[in-house]
Amino acid sequence: MSIGRVDWKAIEEKWQKRWNESKIFEVDPDPKREKTFVTFPFAYMNGPLHVGHGFTAVKVDAYARYMRMRQRSVLFPWAWHWTGETIAGASERVKRRDPAIIKEFKELDGVSDEDLERFVDPAYIARYYTEQNRETVKRIGFSIDWRREFHTTSLEPNFSRFIEWQYRRLREGGYVFKGTHPVVWCPNCESPTGDHDRLEGEGASPEEYILIKFRMGESYIPAATFRPETIFGVTNLWINPEAEYVHAKVDEEAWIVSVEAAEKLKDQLRRVEVNQRLLGRELVGATCIDPVTGKPLIILPAWFVDPKSGSGVVYSVPAHAPLDWVALRDLKAKPELVERYGVEKSKIEKIEPIGIIHLEDHGEYPAVEIVEELKVKDQWDPKCEDATKIIYRKEYHTGILKNNCLQYSGMRVQEVKDRIVRDFKEVKIADSMFDLTQKVVCRCTTLCKVKILQDQWFLRYSDQQWKQRTKLLLSRAKVYPESARQWFLDVIDWYRDWPCARKTGLGTPIPWSPEWIIETLSDSTVYMAFYTINKEIRRHNLTPKQLTDEVFDYIFLGEGRLEEVASRAGIEKEVLESMRLEFLYWYPVDLRVSAKELLPNHLTFYLFHHAAIFREEHWPRAIGVNGMLMIEGEKMSKSKGNIVSLRRAIEEHSADIVRVTLLMGGDGMDDPDWRNENLKDITNRLESFMNTAKNIIGMSEGGSFGHLEEWLTSRIHDRVVKVTEHLENLKTRAAAENIIYEIQNDLRWYLRRRGTPNSKVLRRLLETWVRLMAPFAPHISEEVWELLGNEGFVSTEQWPRPEEFEKSLRAELIEESVQNMIEDIKNILRATGKTPRRIILYTAPRWKWRAILRILESRVKGSTQEGVMKDLALDPEIKDVISEAKKFVQTFTKEATQVTSEYAEKILEAGIIDEYSTLKEAIPFLSKEFKAEVEVYRSDDHSKYDPAGRAYHARPYRPAVYIE
C-alpha cells in the first residue's frame, strides 16, 4: 500500500461526487427518527466567502455530521443574502468608477474586466458571487441539502411573499409601527442605514447628549454631556479656540454652538436660523452663568473639544472627569496657553476641583487620583481615555452623590440621571440632541449622520412585554458558551425601537408601504422556517400568487382548515399538508451558530421575531456564538488586503486541512488566529493519519493481548467520551485536539512500548478513530473507511459508543506511572550528566499501598490523620513498620491535599496494583529506551541490590531509582 504524500484534490473530488450521486445529505421527515435542524447565517453576496465565514460554518457542519452519525435525521440547508445596500452600494460605486472598489473586485476577488462591466447591475453582482460561493461551499464538503436553497429580495418572489407575511403578522401584533425616532441616516440614499449597510461604524447608534444651558447675556451656551449628574461639580466651560461656532436661533432661543452642531440640529426637528459665525477664541475668557447655582463661570480653551461632537461645547468637572483635570492642569502648568487670549493667569490658578460623588477606595477627587496613578502626561495622552473609562465605570456602578447636590444628595449615580434630566428639562435649563460617537459610512461611501425621522416604520423593540417574552425564549434555550447569555440579556434590555426600512437597495418592499424596502437585518430573522418548505415549493412549482398569508398561517401557525386553505390558494391538499408536516417535523431550529459581531443585532433580532410570531414549541433551542477570525494576528480587512477567501484557502491547502485548521481555531468567544504555521502542522498531522491508517491496514495479523492492549482500549474509551462530550457542547477545538493530537499520542506510546503490536486492537482503534475524525475531515475519513474494506459512507455510520471499549483504570494508572518514572530518570540524568550503565528500580511495599489508599479514602470521607493512623496501626502488615509508617502517613497526608478528588477516586477505584510485575515486563522496553541494563526489585526484598538505600523512598506509582 502506497505511503507518502496525500493527493487531497483527488480524494475530495472522488467523495464529493459520490455524496452528490447518493444524495446522502438530502433528508425528508422520518417520524421514526429524532431530528436535528442546524443553520448558519446566510452571507452577503457582495464578495467571496472568506475563512471567517468558514470558521463559523464549519462548526455548524461538524455538529451536523456528528448528529447524523448519532443516527438522527439532520437538516443543514443553505441560502444567500442579497438584501440591502451592501450589494447595491457596491454596484453604484462601480457605476461611478470608484477606484477603490474596482481595485478590490479585480485584485482581491479576481473579477474579470468583462464581469466588472456588468457589475453596474446589483443583481448581476449577487448572482456572480452566489454561483462562485455555491461551488466553494460544495468544495469544502459541507453536508447541505441543496433542494431548499434560496436567496432573499424581490428577485426571488416566493421568498418575498414569505417576508411580506412575516411583516403583516408583526404589524397585526403591534410590533411594527410608524413613528418619530432618531436614526443613522445616509443623505445620499435618503434612508436609515443599518449595521450591515455600512462600510464603517457597525454597531453605532444615535446617542442622546444632554445639553446643559449656560446663559451668556441674552444667549445660551448648551454644553453637551452624557453625565448630567456631574453638573454640581462644574468649574468652567471648555471651548475649542480653533473651531468655528455660530450664534443661531434654535426654535425660540438664542444658542451658541459649533457650526457642525447647528447643521445637525436642523435634522432633528429643530428650527435653526444662523445669525453670525465666530471663532472659538472669541469666546475664551468670557463668563457664563451656572444654571444651577447662578455663579459666573469662565470659558477656557481646550483642544480636546471636538466641534463635530455634540454641541461643540463641554462643561468641566475636574474632580470626576480625568480629561477635564488634565486640561486644567495643562493650563496651570503653561499659563501662556490662556494668556494669549487675554486671560489672566490668576483666574486659572484659583480654579479647584469640586468633589460631588463619593466613591469607595477613593478620596475627594477620583479623577485626579487616577490621572496620577496612570501617569497621564497631557490631554493628548491615550491613557487619558483609559482613565476616563475606569472612573466613569466605577462612579456609575458604585458612586453616591454627596451632600452638595441639592435634593439629589445621597442618591446612587446609576439611578439619578433620568430624574435630573426630567427635572432640568421642566425648568428649561436642559435640552437634548442626538449624535454618533463614532464615524459611520454608508456602503455608498457617504458619511452618515443622525436624523429624526417622522412617519418612518420601526420595530418596537422597546416594548417591555416583547422583551419579557424574548427573555423567556432565551431562558429555555441553550447558549454556547453560557457566558454569552448575559450579553444577550443586556442587549435585549437596551434595545430601543429599530428603523426596519430604507428607500434604496435590494430587498422586499413593505407590503402596505411599498416605497419602503425592509432593511437587511430585518428580513433575516425567521427565514429558517422557509427552508422547511422551499423544497416543496420548488418541487411543485408553486407561484407567489398561491403563497397567500392564509397558506403561511396554516403551515407555520396551524390556523385554518386544510381543505379550505388549499382550495382558496389553488394548491393541492396533499402538497399543502406536506409543507405543514415538513415544518412541524423540522422546527424549531436546534442550533444556530454565528460570530459574536452578530449577537447585538442579528442573533438578538432572531430571538425577538421568533418570540413574536411562533408558538413556544417552535422557539429556537440552542445558539452558538464564536469569536472573530484573525489573520496572522491582525483583524481581517479588505482595506488591509489580508482577506483570505475560502476558495483560495481550499485551492492552496485542501478542504480537510482548511476545515481542521478552522475547527482547531478556538472555542467560545475567543478570537482565533489563521496562521500558516498552523496550516503546516495540520497538513502534517492529517498526512500522518493517512499513512498510519495505511500501515495498520497493511499490518500482518498477530500480537498478544495484554496489559498494553488493555491500556490502549481504555484510552479509546476515554477519547470517545471526551470527543462526544465536547461536540455536544459545541467545543469543536477541544474535540479536534483529542482526535488530531491525543489519539495519535496514545498510538505512538503504544507502538513505542509494544514490540509486536496487536493488529486486531490497532484495526479496532483505526475504525473508531476514523469515525471520530469524520465530522472534522470527512474526505480523508471516507477514503480510510473504504481502505478498511467497508461499504457505504463513514458519514452515515454509527458514532462510536464508549461502552464498545472496556475502561481500565488500573492499566491507565500503570502506564501513567511508567511515563512518570521515565521522566524522573531523564531528569536525574540531566541533573547529573551521567550516561547510565545500569538502572535499578524499586517498587513500593504493599503496606504503602494500603496506607495511601486509606489516606485518600479518609480525604474523600473527611477523616483526620489521627483516625487514619489508628486504623493502620491495627493492620497486621503495618505493625512491624509502624514507625516508618507514621512518617510516611505524615508526609503523604500533606501531599494528598494537592490531589484532586477526581484523581483520588480513580486511585481508590483501581486499588492495589502489581507494579513490580508491570515493570519486570517493561524491562526490555526500558533497556532500549536508556541503552542500559535495567533491574527491578521489591523494596522489601531483603536480597535486593541497593547500595545507596534508595528503596526506602519507593512509593506507589513512583518507584525509587538508582543509576550507575
Q: What CATH architecture of the domain at 207-435 do you see?
A: Alpha-Beta Complex
CA-based gyration radius: 36 Å
Low-pLDDT runs of 5+ residues are none
Q: Quote the CATH topology of the domain at 207-435.
A: Isoleucyl-tRNA Synthetase, domain 2
- Please tally the β strands and state the result: 32
End-to-end Cα distance = 46 Å
Shape: globular
Strand content: 15-25%
CATH superfamily of the domain at 207-435: Valyl/Leucyl/Isoleucyl-tRNA synthetase, editing domain
What structural class do you assign from the helix and strand content? alpha+beta
Strand order of the largest sheet: 2-1-25-26-20
- How many helical elements? 36
Largest sheet: 5 strands, parallel
- Overall pLDDT level: 93
- The CATH class label of the domain at 207-435 is Alpha Beta
Helix content: 40-55%
What does this structure look like?
This protein is an alpha+beta fold and 964 residues long. Among the domains are: 207-435, Isoleucyl-tRNA Synthetase, domain 2 (Alpha-Beta Complex), CATH 3.90.740.10; 811-963, no CATH class. Helix 25 (707-728) crosses helix 29 (809-832). It is built from 36 helices and 32 strands. The chain has a five-stranded parallel beta sheet, with helices on both faces. A four-stranded antiparallel beta sheet has the order 4-3-19-21. The protein has a four-stranded mixed beta sheet with strand order 12-13-8-14, with no helix packed on it. The model has no long low-confidence stretch (mean pLDDT 93). The radius of gyration is 36 Å and the shape is globular.
